[in-house]
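Example record

One chain of 58 residues, shown exactly as stored in the release files.
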Amino acid sequence: MLSCEWRDCDRISGYRFNVKNRRRVTQGIEYYCERHALERIEEASRDPWLEIMSSTKR
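Predicted structure tokens for this chain:
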């Protein structure tokens, strides 16, 4: 099991995101618990440089 990638969270991840960062021209996989998955979606919706390409509940 993978841990949540949110700042100082020690919960087990339940969601997997494929995130594209246009500022850094990178794309990668990020893992978050249910609570922080919603916060990451909100954060990405406010940042024009970020795009969540896909999400999967694990």
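Notes: Residues 15 and 57 are 5 Å apart (CA to CA).
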